[in-house]
Amino acid sequence: MRKFKTESKKLLDLMINSIYTNREIFLRELISNASDAVDKLYFRSLTDSDVQLSADELAIDVAFDKDARTITVSDSGIGMNKDELEKNLGTIAHSGSLDFKTENAEGEQASAVDIIGQFGVGFYSAFMVAKKVVVVSKRYGEDEACSWTSDGVEGYTIADAERENHGTDVILYLKDDADEDSYSEFLSEWKLRELIKKYSNYVRYPIRMEVSKTRTLPKPEDAGDDYTPQHEHYTEIETINSMVPIWKRKKSEVTDEEYNEFYKSDFHDFVDPLRTMSVHAEGMLTYDALLFIPGRQPYDLFSPDYKKGLALYSSNVLIMEKCEDLLPDYFGFVRGVVASEDLTLNISRETLQHNTQLRAIAKKVEKKIKSELADMRDKDRDAYEGFFKNFGRNLKFGIYSTYGQAASTLSDLLLFYSAKQEKLVTLDEYVDAMLADQEAIYYAAGNSVERLAKLPVVQSVLDRGFDVLLCAEDVDELCLQSMFQYKEKEFKNVSGGNLGLETEDEKAAAEAAAKDNEALFAAMKDALGEKVTKVSVSTRLTTAEAAPACITAEGPVSLEMEKLFAGMPVPEGGEAPRASRVLEVNAANPVFEVLKAAQEAEDADKVKLYADVLYNQALLVEGMPLEDPVAFANEIAQLMK
Hints:
Elements: E1 2-3, H1 6-19, H2 26-47, E2 60-65, E3 70-75, H3 82-89, H4 96-103, E4 130-138, E5 145-150, E6 155-161, E7 167-174, H5 189-199, E8 207-216, E9 231-239, H6 256-266, E10 275-281, E11 287-293, E12 310-314, E13 317-323, E14 335-339, H7 355-379, H8 381-401, H9 407-410, E15 416-418, E16 423-425, H10 427-432, E17 440-445, H11 449-453, H12 456-463, E18 468-471, H13 476-483, E19 485-486, E20 489-493, H14 504-516, H15 518-528, E21 534-537, E22 549-554, H16 559-566, E23 580-585, H17 590-600, H18 604-622, H19 629-640
Parallel strand pairs: 2-8, 12-14, 17-18, 17-20, 21-23
Antiparallel strand pairs: 1-6, 2-3, 3-7, 4-5, 4-7, 5-6, 8-9, 10-11, 11-14, 12-13, 15-16, 15-18, 19-20, 22-23
Helix pairs in contact: 7-8, 8-13, 15-18
């Protein structure tokens, strides 16, 4: 036995136990090596007229023997002689593929060199599942075959062997099952098919395997009417992989049906995608991308288990099933594939060595998605509104979670319901329809468009001719506050602070009413205590037909935000932020005269009763919870006596 050097033993142990994190990739690595071997022979046929190959010679075969507990990966590639087995397999981290790629980096046929292997360590991933590995190889053009055998611990042996044709067989003798580790799972047709389809589906050469099938036998001529169809089981060699990636085909050569079937098959959806984007980029960084906007919202989109990302391929081999760095969170619903030969992979091929390449691709992908969404918004509004119903929340949360930094990308994609136009509008459409003297974008936040439309504060703004955006999702107000403004127009909550919409006459009338009834407002404030910060005359509700009172909020925490914070966990001993509530009384409503009469009669109990009723009614209108519903019910009953 030829011993591994001490340093080599340490490196081998490191590779088997540390470099690779997922043991199922052993098959990907062995198939990639086989593909490289076939590539080398194919390249030689392009440069050497003495090498004559037929198309059916270039293939990779995978087989398993459940009784012998072996998996065999065979190729019809260039093969290796004894010296090459010693050099390539006996010297850990030596890559014959990298040598080949370097030697043929120039010349007329350089573009045909697309070797996957670079580090010379992928082969040793076999020892994650195998207790012994035997390699039998015969170099093209030579008569003798040879074998390399190792247990991956002490060393290896090289001996003469028998192989009819050129190429290489890698035979894995699987480890015995243990309590926590089952290796027998790889000794099944469905598992090997699954791994081939998952990692090596687009290797350019056929990956063949003997598969089991069932067929119906012909009905015998003498069979009666009660004949039961008979079936037989048989096996045949089948090509498992697709070979030609759909993203490398010209868009004009692929039908919508083919794109849809690829999407549904690879991304496990039962609904056609809403939009398909095909990108082919050449230059400093060459890559292909095939992106899909789903036609429905995944059931787990907002669950902690949802993982965004695009499938990342290099040399037609799956490197990462979901590369999160290729998508910003707000476009996390997009599915698809990115493939590039220019990526600098790390030694395990499971992650990237340098993020600059990935960032460059991600930036282009983000730009493409934004462009596609903007095109849908402008040219197919119905489809876009359907998209926004499914994924608009992602865009809004994207602005909030980036503290407004993503607003430049996302703000023109947002839709909100217009109370005035009674339909969804973009912020551009709202601004374009603004009155000449309108200084802000007005919105109301709540949990229902229908309820928001009936709010007295919304009606008061509409009565002045201004539109109001009705924001019925909990993230809406957080999104708008993160943007602060749009096209130099500040966002203002119609239930917040002073909107400044009152006329000089209305302002003067409110000031006069407040001055004349200071004692009344003070008594109402005392009756309500800490529930409100003050009671004032409303400049929003100024007509007899308007509501008798409303609740507004001063400061940064709005009424809707208070409801949102109330549903969140708070630290022990702390409390959720509350809005500074203001009870605004409509001095033009007949109820105000009743209040004044109670105050003039010095009936403090009645003033308190009326203050409580108006306050609780205003809370109900705003969709706020009552602190004591039983007390409120009793107060209503008392008024009815």
